């Protein structure tokens, strides 16, 4: 038996996407929010989505706990208790929590939800990894030596392999994110139709 904790069909949250070209999606232009809890929340779900995607798209609960423990966030976070944070991420569509029984043992796995695919996605994870390893400046700088380009190509190849792509490069992550945006739009449309049908059923039951 398998149970999937998906975003509620009556959830009124929205998935915001940017139509700006990638050249204008820079930190110098798009400043992060000044709200401390909101920026902490964004950082936490970006980190969790990153470790899930870098582990093949699914991550068992025990392994996620180990990653959170390394970040000193296995029990409490700046936003809320860790268990409540994960519940909120599932409710808002950033994560999907799967539960199934295997020989009497409960197995819990996390996957990236539709909102997480759009608002973070492969491109966001790749950018995070480049920042952590100090490679983002090399991506944006055309004035690099042959040795630096070779080193960067090797890094991009390993990053693409970790994210499950056959080839490296920004175009590959962009294509994955565009597919995720299309999937998220379809999911939102289904959720709105489901919510509308539920409201109509409630109205009919009143008569």
TrEMBL record:
GO BP, one annotated term: DNA repair
Record-given protein name: MAGE domain-containing protein
Acidic residues bias (residue ranges): 197-207
Region (Disordered): 166-207
UniProtKB keywords: Membrane, Transmembrane, Transmembrane helix
Annotated MAGE domain residues: 1-125
Gene Ontology CC terms: nucleus
One Pfam family of this chain: MAGE
Top-rank taxon, per record: Eukaryota
TM region positions: 40-59
The keyword Membrane is annotated on this UniProt entry: yes
InterPro entries assigned: MAGE (IPR037445), MAGE_WH2 (IPR041899), MHD_dom (IPR002190)
């Amino acid at each position: 038996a398998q149970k999937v904790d998906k975003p509620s069909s009556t959830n009124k949250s929205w998935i915001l996407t940017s139509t700006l070209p990638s050249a204008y999606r820079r930190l110098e232009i798009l400043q992060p929010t000044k709200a401390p809890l909101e920026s902490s929340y964004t950082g936490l779900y970006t980190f969790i989505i990153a470790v899930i995607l870098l582990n093949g798209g699914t991550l068992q609960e025990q392994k996620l706990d180990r990653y959170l423990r390394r970040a000193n966030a296995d029990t409490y976070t700046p936003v809320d208790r860790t268990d409540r944070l994960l519940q909120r991420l599932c409710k808002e569509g950033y994560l999907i929590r799967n539960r199934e029984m295997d020989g009497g043992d409960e197995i819990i796995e996390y996957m990236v939800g539709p909102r997480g695919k759009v608002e973070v996605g492969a491109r966001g994870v790749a950018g995070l990894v480049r920042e952590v390893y100090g490679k983002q400046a090399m991506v944006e700088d055309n004035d690099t030596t042959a040795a630096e380009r070779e080193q960067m190509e090797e890094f991009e190849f390993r990053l693409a392999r970790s994210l499950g792509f056959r080839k490296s490069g920004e175009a590959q992550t962009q294509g994955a994110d565009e597919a995720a945006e299309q999937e998220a739009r379809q999911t939102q449309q289904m959720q709105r139709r489901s919510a509308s049908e539920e409201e109509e059923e409630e109205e009919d039951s009143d008569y």
